[in-house]
Specification:
Number of strands: 5
Number of helices: 1
Order of helices and strands: HEEEEE
Strand content: 25-35%
Length: 115
């Protein structure tokens, strides 16, 4: 009976970790979209786990996730986010000085010749 209880507890912890990772991936995608950078590999990886107190003072699990982003599609930079109780606590993204150039078409207009 103890083995079944331990197995069920392990499955519950595993399911909780998968849910947290999916939430971190969605939050990372949203942060990158708002910052105008590209989330590379469409994934996040768990970088660390610890305990922290929430706003009510209860001890909760804090998860740190890392991911890679690109400013222009040809480079790689590190980004990260920290979650506590399923909420975004902090994040880190690279800073860009220029705004990305967005073109509505891939056609380049050539100057007209005077006839």
């Amino acid at each position: 009976m103890l083995a079944v209880i331990l197995l069920l507890a392990a499955l519950a912890l595993w399911q909780n970790a998968l849910k947290a990772r999916d939430l971190a991936r969605a939050l990372g995608h949203d942060l990158c979209a708002k910052a105008g950078v590209q989330l590379l590999d469409q994934s996040v990886s768990l970088a660390g786990v610890g305990f922290a107190r929430n706003a009510e003072g209860h001890l909760r699990l804090r998860r740190n996730y890392r991911f890679e982003v690109s400013l222009d599609g040809h480079d790689r930079h590190r980004g990260g986010l920290t979650m506590l109780d399923g909420r975004l606590l902090a994040w880190s993204l690279p800073v860009t000085d220029t705004q990305p150039v967005v073109r509505s078409s891939n056609v380049i207009e050539l100057p007209r010749r005077a006839n």
